[in-house]
Amino acid sequence: MTAIDELVKLLKKLPGMGEKSATRLAYHLIATDSNFNKALGESISKLQEKIHPCPICGCYTEGEKCPYCDDENRDKTILCVVEQAQDTLSIAQSGVYNGLFHVLGGAINPINGIGPGSLRLKELKERIENGNFREVIIATNPTEEGDTTALFIRQLLSPFENLTLTRLASGIPIGGDLGYVDKLTLARSMRERIKL
Amino acid sequence: MTAIDELVKLLKKLPGMGEKSATRLAYHLIATDSNFNKALGESISKLQEKIHPCPICGCYTEGEKCPYCDDENRDKTILCVVEQAQDTLSIAQSGVYNGLFHVLGGAINPINGIGPGSLRLKELKERIENGNFREVIIATNPTEEGDTTALFIRQLLSPFENLTLTRLASGIPIGGDLGYVDKLTLARSMRERIKL
Among A102, A133, A184, B28, which is most buried by a count of CB atoms within 10 Å? Predict the structure, then answer.
């Protein structure tokens, strides 16, 4: 197997990468500055040596604690539960959230063998028990798996009577067009309509 | 800059990779088996140590000559001129071509400063002079740049009177639908219609 074939085989395992796009990318890399390839290759191969999950929230970090848990200015009484570490980025960048995060590491999906035991749900309960939270925002994806996980968390946290549980609103995206919105989204935005 | 930010910055330089997809890919890689990342990283960083252009045709190879030039069973009297090395793969895989290749390394594009001198056109003329070719198929892309390059090659090779010059047919893709084909393609397939 040549070096190109080998690279194409590896690239094809990346998400959204088929035979054609992997081949195209491999040929692009051959024609690229070799210093760039050295930097990129090094960066990929040493990634996990540098980065590990934060022991508290599960976000990725290079330090002992992640930047969110380590930030004194964040509101320690509000917790946002997400499926994946990268979801914290999107939420932090939206600019309207200044609390802490909790990464589950996925969503309940019995078909793929992901039960509640595979997720960081025990850690979530422990954080609520030992912390001083007033609100938990469940920010799992608006999918069947995310909704199931949200329901599971509602049950899991129901013993904490003073805790407010909320969920991100679903509906028509800003700038969206009713004619192009899928019917499930439209149904949900109708069911969860808000009073003006 | 953290290791993730650094990786995202590098990934963003790849073709078709924006901020979002680079971030998504970086997080995918963090969650991947570290042995895979080591293999991929190594493969990328050492790519150019192993691969170099074939001195005859310009395809990429690990050996002295490329597999096409080295193949005794290929027809040495027909030459297919392409823009990029990866184009040879697509043509070879179509299964209807068994001649040799010549890689130009791009197409004439004065706006981007790519003149005839930047392409392997001198090498093309030399191959025709010293070889025993009866036909040259110009397989540059059906774009403005590819068409300009094809015209330039036609002039370049006009002194060779016994040489047949051809060009890949352009038109409606197989399985295509007239209603969805762009008007330039349709115009071209009309202009270059063939007799039944």
Answer: A102
The Cα–Cα gap between A39 and A54 comes to 26
CA neighbor of A79 nearest in space, from A134, A122, A120, A126: A134
Test A45 with B23 for CB contact under 8 angstroms: no
Interface contact flag, A7 B43, Cβ < 8 Å: yes
- Ordered DSSP codes for A35-101: HHHHHHHHHHHTHHHH-EE-TTT--EESSSS-TTTT-TTSEEEEEEEESSHHHHHHHHHHSS--EEE
- Per CB-CB distance under 8 Å, the chain B contacts of A51 are 2-4, 30
Nearest to B135 by CA among B92, B75, B73: B75
Which of A44, A70, A118, A141 best probes binding to B when mutated, by most B CB atoms within 10 angstroms? Answer: A44
Query: Chain A: residue nearest B23 by CA?
Result: A86
Q: What is the pLDDT of residues B18-63, one digit of tens each?
A: 998 999 999 999 989 999 999 999 999 999 998 999 999 999 999 8
